[in-house]
Design a protein that fits this description.
Layout (H helix, E strand, L loop, with lengths): L2 E2 L2 E2 L5 E2 L5 H14 L6 E2 H4 L6 E5 H5 L8 E5 L3 E8 L2 E5 L2 E5 L3 E5 L5 E4 L6 E7 L1 H5 L5 H5 L11 E3 L4 H16 L6 H22 L11 H13 L6 H8 L3 H12 L3 H19 L4 H7 L5 H12 L3 H5 L1 H12 L2
Parallel strand pairs: 4-6
Antiparallel strand pairs: 1-5, 2-3, 5-12, 6-11, 7-10, 7-12, 8-9, 8-11, 10-13
Helix pairs in contact: 6-7, 11-15
């Protein structure tokens, strides 16, 4: 496996930096082992070299897991597509669990928390990671990629392909891996085309299964607001600050949000804080006071009051089995 970083203009757009497979896998292993105490590992922060595109075999990653067949909760600004070709295991996306086996396909949006556990020793498959830079730097129009329904939200991120679609999608993954390992300068042109072909095939599969959401019209101000909230929700909850960054009046920001997402700016920020708190409570062993600190509350009592007001239950109750079984469904749909 190698990792593509920024293009090198002096080399005709060829790949500027590459690492051998053992070094990359060892780096992942180091991050998994050293930062498990984070609760949820932010790969953007912890992985020293973060590529715009990676492609590898699932079994290579599982071989370096801190515990056999299990990977800790992580998040990244990269999108991830995974196909299981043999074996079985449990994938947790958000806080919802999925039992996966051969021909299971799953798509993980950027910044979505996910983890794996109890994968069998015979598990094999393919993993592809990419971000917007991968396409931008190759002059691919963003709307051709990120305007697709696959990126607009899926009713469920996992799908078991039938015996016809499974081998076809597997072949697409294999072609991408093959092209990724090719040191030809034409790779910069062919690789994004092959990834686009895979995206289209996967979108068709999800759509055929009735798992894509209706088309959602987005406003550029809302898109930027959501990006800002994602970056700053734990430190900044002031609506005026977000409006200033967007060069709009808070009232206009609220109007746009109500029009396109049915919630105002304050509710959007609070919803993101609650989502993060739920993820930490469900997936990490952090104490409630530590969860409070992670989402921007110095006083755990204030956090508990906030959480109770926005969810109808206390953080401790959320962690209890009966309540969490119901809340996991809400979290997965958020």
């Amino acid at each position: 496996m190698k990792t593509i970083f920024k293009n090198d203009p002096a080399n005709g757009g060829a790949i500027a930096k590459q690492f051998d497979k053992p070094a990359i896998l060892n780096r992942y292993r180091t991050v998994f082992h050293n930062y498990r105490a984070d609760g949820i590992i932010d790969m953007d922060r912890r992985l020293k070299e973060k590529g715009e595109f990676t492609a590898c075999k699932l079994e290579d990653i599982l071989a370096f897991a801190p515990e056999p067949g299990s990977l800790p909760p992580v998040r990244s600004s990269n999108y991830m597509m995974v196909l299981i070709t043999s074996g079985k295991g449990e994938k947790i996306i958000g806080a919802r669990s999925y039992d996966l086996c051969r021909h299971a396909l799953y798509f993980i949006p950027k910044r979505m928390v996910h983890s794996s556990r109890t994968w069998s020793t015979d598990t094999t498959g393919y993993i592809i990671n990419f971000n917007a830079d991968f396409f931008d730097q190759r002059n691919f129009p963003a709307d051709q990629i990120f305007g697709r329904k696959l990126f607009k939200g899926l009713q469920t991120p996992c799908l078991h392909l039938d015996e016809q679609a499974g081998p076809f999608v597997q072949q697409l993954f294999e072609r991408i891996i093959e092209e990724f390992n090719c040191d030809d300068i034409a790779q910069n042109e062919l690789l994004p085309l092959k990834v686009l072909e895979l995206l289209i095939a996967c979108e068709r599969a999800f759509q055929k299964a009735g798992l894509t959401c209706d088309e959602v019209v987005r406003h550029p101000v809302i898109e930027k607001f959501n990006e800002l909230v994602e970056m700053h929700f734990a430190e900044i909850r002031n609506v005026q600050w977000y409006a200033d960054q967007l060069c709009v009046h808070p009232n206009h920001l609220n109007y746009l949000l109500k029009k396109y997402s049915a919630v105002n700016a304050k509710e959007s920020i609070n919803n993101r804080i609650v989502l993060e708190a739920k993820s930490l409570l469900a997936l990490s062993g952090l104490m409630v006071k530590d969860v409070a600190h992670r989402v921007g509350f110095d006083d755990p009592n204030n956090f508990s009051t906030f959480f109770q007001k926005n969810t109808g239950c206390s953080p401790a109750s959320f962690r209890s089995t009966d309540v969490q079984q119901q809340a996991n469904e809400q979290l997965a749909a958020s």
